[in-house]
Amino acid sequence: MVRVVANPGSCIGAGQCVVTAPSVFDQDEDGIVVVLDEHPGDDELADVRDALDVCPSRSLRLATD
Amino acid sequence: MSNTANLVDFPLRRPGQPYPPDQYADFRAREGLVWSHMPTGAKVWLVTKYDDVRAVLTDPRISSSPRHEGFPSVGRTGGVPNPDQVPGWFVALDPPDHDRFRKALIPEFTVRRIREMRPSIQEVVDHRIDGLLTAGNEAELVSDFTAAVPSLVISALLGVPHVDRDFFEARIRLLVTMSSTHDERDQATREILRYLSRLILVKQKRPGDDLISVMLASGAMSLQEISGAAMLLLIAGQETTANNMALGMVTLLLNPQWIGDERAVEELLRYYSVADMVALRVATEDTEIGGQPIKGGEGIVPLVAAANHDSSVFERAGDFDPSRSARHHVAFGYGVHQCLGQHLVRAELDIAYKTLFERIPKLELAIPVEKLAFKYDGVVFGIDSLPVRW
């Protein structure tokens, strides 16, 4: 199963993931990425892949459990 | 290094409408990067392919700091102020120096915070349109609207009194004009910093809910650094937004079928990429981009308008087509320096376009598009004046 993994240490809070896949990503009070749904459905995966691509600090990846 | 037969002069003249320069397509078709000659006499690498631009902006061997030998400048003078003159100009700092500025400011620019600001942006836009409608049935849209809205929004956000708009506008103009002299730039910079330092002293005594007070409370920056960071936010928030807004108005007037469609905002950001040559870089050690070896100390200019018109990434890239998915454009840059205020820019553009055309549906250009005065001499591309009527 595919799992969404974010690296808050490298996140720069650009918020691109939040606008690209809003049901999967959010920002905490400091502006840093929060994964809302580690196992998004197939219908959301295209948006998640776009979010991975547009993340300017390359802080997101998909892992297979 | 490529041979000198390939040397091109840069910056190129921008055609205006359509945009960007035709030569970008020729540059993208070449192997590797384009070795070019700047007005300062320096030679730099121009980067025009989408993948190469993203690679430059994320390569740890490539720096944003003018402290390094070989850092480029697009104008006759300056471009990026020297960090010694403007401490806190954090776009010219590399990680980890850069990170404490970004960390202190990102909570104020999250998607949620900007959404909360929408009603106050709407108020600014409505108020300006009330003014236009009261004044008659024609206007010069740049001074009356597209420059005024971002200026009001960023001043309020920073806590800078808007009565001093003219003071800032005159000095910012010198800083973003390629032909300004060193002395003009230095003086404008000193005057802006002096003003902001005085304002910071006031905010120390009476903090507000503005960005200067936030920076003071963060404890992450010296007072001098806060002045520099505030100056950067003021210029960045003003110039890019205002120019994009004005150019977007022209495009929407020429393509009225897209008025009211919110997808137009993202496509206009891609299409104009007004900060085409703002993200200047220098290699600090030998590296390689798109098969092109780059030596340490060589300057690099990643051109975001060229990247955003790369037809291998954006089909029929020269067409203005909001139905495409344009979100992966690099108009706001890429890497750790990607525009901090990008969601604010999107909100301002969206509200401005929607409200203006809704409230003045008969809006039209008062002069032919060929007569419009584009900012050929601007570090940021834009338009000097936009006469309209209704």
Keywords:
heterodimer, A: 65 residues, alpha+beta, Alpha-Beta Plaits, two-stranded antiparallel sheet, two-stranded antiparallel ribbon, 28% helix, 25% strand, globular, B: 390 residues, Cytochrome p450, 6-stranded mixed β-sheet, 3-stranded antiparallel β-sheet, 13 strands, disordered N terminus
Descriptive overview:
The complex is a heterodimer of chains A (65) and B (390). By secondary structure, chain A is an alpha+beta fold. Chain A has one domain (2-64): 2-Layer Sandwich (Alpha-Beta Plaits), CATH 3.30.70. Chain A has two helices and four strands, in the order βαββαβ. Chain A has a two-stranded antiparallel sheet with strand order 1-4. In chain A, strands 2-3 form a two-stranded antiparallel ribbon. The radius of gyration of chain A is 10 Å and the shape is globular. The mean pLDDT of chain A is 96. Chain B has 390 residues and is α+β, with helices and mostly antiparallel strands. Chain B has a single domain (4-389), classed as Orthogonal Bundle (Cytochrome p450), CATH 1.10.630.10. Chain B is built from 13 helices and 13 strands. A six-stranded mixed β-sheet of chain B has the order 1-2-3-9-6-4. Chain B has a three-stranded antiparallel β-sheet with strand order 5-13-10. Chain B has a two-stranded antiparallel sheet with strand order 7-8. In chain B, strand 11 (373-374) and strand 12 form a beta hairpin. In chain B, helix 4 (111-135) runs parallel beside helix 13 and helix 9 runs antiparallel to helix 10. Chain B is globular and about 60 Å long.
